[in-house]
Amino acid sequence: MRFITIFFFTFLAISHVEVTARIASSVQSRYDKPGIITGADQTEKYVPYLKGKRIALVANQSSIIGRKSSVDSLLSLGVKIVKVFGPEHGFRGNASNGAAVGNETDLKTGIPIISLYGKNQKPTKEQLADVDLMVFDIQDVGCRYYTNINTLQYVMEACAENNKELLILDRPNPNAYVVDGPVMTDDRFKSAIGIHYIPMTHGMTIGEFAQYLNGEGYLKKPCKITIVKVANYDHDKSYVLPINPSPNLNTQQAVMLFPSLCMFEGTAINEGRGTYMPFTVLGAPALKDKYPFSYKPVGIPGMSESPRHKDAVCYGLDLRKYDTDKLRKSRQINLSWLIELYNAYPDKANFFTPGRANQDISAFDLRIGTDQLRKQIIAGVSEADIRKSWEPGLQKFKAIRMKYLLYP
Question: Hey, what's the signal peptide range on this chain (predicted)?
Fold first, then answer.
């Protein structure tokens, strides 16, 4: 209680008293309960270090302190934020997947917002010229094909090249319990949705992944990083995200199913994009005679404007009530749905969608990080044998991963 009391009265001493008190109350409530406390919520550990510096924040709608935007909260605490860098989906998280996002100025604060998913993916020397310290605070979900870890690497590269320190406000990985899938080992499969030699799910937080990038030579020059760790956290702890991390991960069910269902991008199956239940349903018009469940994808601005099978009725699997604890207990992605729908699909030659022109690499291969899984499914290899083929790569990666873990 002595710490909480000091923390509370420290807040009262700051100029924006009413706003700051509300932040303190929200964050303090987390300290009063034995539970996970994000790095961002532990303001006493880093706000004094930010004071007097020109701060650039890498953030989106998931970047919150208590219940408020990190940008608004830090400004109210006297932190000078000179610009914000936004990842895929933009600073406010309202751009469709894969859509280029432009630069803008925040109407509320007048702070420049620079997109890292538009003209440039990496902050430029000019963009960092008036920055003393970079702060990275974005919620991740633990998959190679979720592009926040790409943004992390590009930001670390820019900081290293321009001698800027990076402060990481760590957040739990809701899928940290699972390290699974084939490891990408061939540069031919690098793409905008995968640039790291890791399994489909890596089981690390952003802070841990930053240490991995530094330690495994992904950067020409190591980045100076400081990590504010998550309190009361371990990799097996369940974590319900307080804010949707992206437009199409709009429920906890979708977050938990994402590692398994995102595999279907690159196939003829719609994974719920174009509905308000993305990543919880699977279907295609061609499966009409195989499944009774149906839904119709449509264009939804800010989510999926041109989903696969737009305006056509899709038939398939409804996983909205699927018990995701099964995934947690198995510590595996679900491979059976992919095998089932491939076997049920009448036009198998067109199940996997084309990828790179003049190469035997499908869009599915780019997502998975190898062409082996596609070829195994076509050949009818059993799930057990497919998983067995993953093991050498997984065991090697897990041994490397252990060196960079911050949590049990």
Answer: none
Let me know if residue 387 belongs to a domain: no
Q: How many CA atoms lie within 13 A of 109 on its CB side?
A: 19
Show the tokens assigned to 52: 């007097």
- Two tokens, residue 205: 């937080």
Helix (H) or strand (E) holding 114: strand 112-115
CA distances from 111 to 107, 168, 211, 216, 377 (A): 8, 21, 30, 35, 50
17-31 and 2-12 helices cross at what angle (nearest 10)?
Answer: 160
Q: Which among 179, 196, 228 is the end of a domain?
A: 228
pTM over 0.70, yes/no: yes
For residues 62 and 49, the answer to whether their CB atoms sit within 8 Å is: no
Residue-number span of the structural domain to which 67 is assigned? 35-228
Output the CA–CA distances (angstroms, integers) from residue 33 to 30, 36, 110, 258, 408, in the order listed: 5, 9, 36, 29, 21
Confidence of residue 107 (pLDDT cuts 50, 70, 90): confident
Tell me if 141 sits within 8 A of 89, measured CB to CB. Answer: no
Per the model's pLDDT, the better-predicted residue between 89 and 48 turns out to be 48
Residue 82: which CATH number?
3.40.50.12170
Q: pLDDT confidence of 90, banded at 50, 70, 90?
A: low
| 41 is a domain residue | yes
Q: Confidence band (pLDDT; 50, 70, 90) for 120?
A: confident
Strands annotated E in 245-381? 281-284, 294-295, 314-318
CB burial readout 41-74, b (16+ within 10 A) else e: bbbeebbeebeebebbbbbbbbbbbbebbbbbbb
157 and 261 housed in the same domain: no
Is 209 found in the same domain as 281? no
Residue 15 has pLDDT above 50, yes or no: no
Whether residue 73 is found in the same domain as residue 180 = yes
For residues 47 and 177, membership in a common domain is answered with yes
Q: pLDDT digits over 265-321, tens only?
A: 999 999 999 999 999 999 999 999 999 999 999 999 989 999 999 999 999 999 999
